[in-house]
Amino acid sequence: MAGTANCIDIILAIILPPLGVFLKFGCGHEFWICLLLTFLGYIPGIIYAIYAITKSLGSLILPRRTRRPMDVACSAACS
């Protein structure tokens, strides 16, 4: 089901870029950037909308990198 939602988000981003971004992020800064780019040119709006949607999908799938204890010790020793 998640794949279908992603496909629909991308199709909406191609048809009407600000709508696709708004449905994904709400009225945040991503929406306003997409709206401005769409006013300046339809193609930049599409490119940004697809980038923003796929970037958010990647952050949902990939876990954040956790710091290893050695990284913390090295950063504390170097300070």
TrEMBL record:
<feature type="transmembrane region" description="Helical">
    <location>
        <begin position="31"/>
        <end position="54"/>
    </location>
</feature>
<dbReference type="InterPro" id="IPR000612">
    <property type="entry name" value="PMP3"/>
</dbReference>
<keyword id="KW-0472">Membrane</keyword>
<keyword id="KW-1133">Transmembrane helix</keyword>
<comment type="similarity">
    <text>Belongs to the UPF0057 (PMP3) family.</text>
</comment>
<keyword id="KW-0812">Transmembrane</keyword>
<dbReference type="Pfam" id="PF01679">
    <property type="entry name" value="Pmp3"/>
</dbReference>
<feature type="transmembrane region" description="Helical">
    <location>
        <begin position="7"/>
        <end position="25"/>
    </location>
</feature>
<dbReference type="GO" id="GO:0016020">
    <property type="term" value="C:membrane"/>
</dbReference>
<protein>
    <recommendedName>
        <fullName>Hydrophobic protein LTI6B</fullName>
    </recommendedName>
</protein>
